[in-house]
Amino acid sequence: MMLTAAIVTAAVLGVAKVVRDWLILRQVRAAMDAGTSEDRVRIGMRLAEALGGGQSGPAPEPPAGEAVTPPR
Description:
The chain is an all-alpha fold. It has 2 helices and no strands.
């Protein structure tokens, strides 16, 4: 009985995590589609930071012809 409860609990938590991640990615995609190139760069940097990335080297260059200001 305990094993069944543990399996059910793990399955429910796994499904909840997948649904949460899907909702977050849906919001990120909507923000990327609606935002300017500056917004997309900022969102990408924050997403990389949230996923444990961070900057391992120099900051990436903005797309040609577009000026990107650092976040305030």
